[in-house]
């Protein structure tokens, strides 16, 4: 994950001196990407108006959402000085797939007011679980597929249920029978384990550190508890078809705080079964 580095070396723009500054970003800079950065110990990194958390060895993480703009920039400041510079990166734009699904029950397409109220309350709990800016640094790890199987839905696609366009899909769907074990794609801490949310059914959220998290939904069974630490490869849940689902599958999603990122960009092609 840290193999590809984009390095900026140059003179500071404010208080320019002979000092050389280095700034590194790993990852393909495109919509939906997770970018890992490296900074010096005495630097402060500001992105989108916010100071980023740095690990003890200077690493940080940033997520680009589905519709990220054509360019993003980072401001790098030297602690205790007025020195700073800004580095911009072009963001590769993507084209997304449309999926038409017919025959879905109308109650799934248009929930009633009581169901909407319930779903909003549950969504707030999920967003709160993703909002942890923890000191964990598992975001630097190499991620793996949480299970193997046919991919039936991809990140960024937009689903049209019974002719009605819905919000884009933000995960990757993997079709497997109910009860198939799901493993942690990377180490982390369980932030939420809910047995039956209205839309997402059995829902599990694992924090990988610095705001990067994995969400697993439509689960038939959750094998871990909130606060529990899990290691990469640990069995954490079982595939199901709970919530608003059209069949047994795992929907794996990832977030950097409120930015929805593409899990497939971290794991690459599905391994041969």
Short description:
This is M23 family metallopeptidase. The chain is mainly beta. It is built from 3 helices and 22 strands.
Instruction: Estimate the strand proportion.
Output: 35-45%
Give the structural class. Answer: mainly beta
Under the CATH scheme, which class of the largest domain? Mainly Beta
Helix run count: 3
Fourth-tier CATH superfamily name of the largest domain: Glucose Permease (Domain IIA)
The proportion of residues forming helix, as a percent range, comes to: under 10%
The number of domains: 2
Give the low-pLDDT segments. Answer: 1-20
Distance between the termini: 23 Å
How would you characterize this protein structure?
Keywords: Signal. This is M23 family metallopeptidase. It comes from Sessilibacter corallicola. InterPro entries: Cell_wall_metabolism_enzyme, Dup_hybrid_motif, M23ase_b-sheet_dom. This protein is mainly beta. The chain has two domains: 86 residues, Sandwich (Immunoglobulin-like), CATH 2.60.40; 170 residues, Distorted Sandwich (Glucose Permease (Domain IIA)), CATH 2.70.70.10. Helix content is 10%, strand content 41%. Strands 10, 13, 15, 16, 17, 19, 21 and 22 form an eight-stranded antiparallel sheet that branches. It has a four-stranded antiparallel sheet with strand order 1-2-3-6, with no helix packed on it. It has a four-stranded antiparallel sheet with strand order 5-4-7-8, with no helix packed on it. β11 and β12 form a beta hairpin.
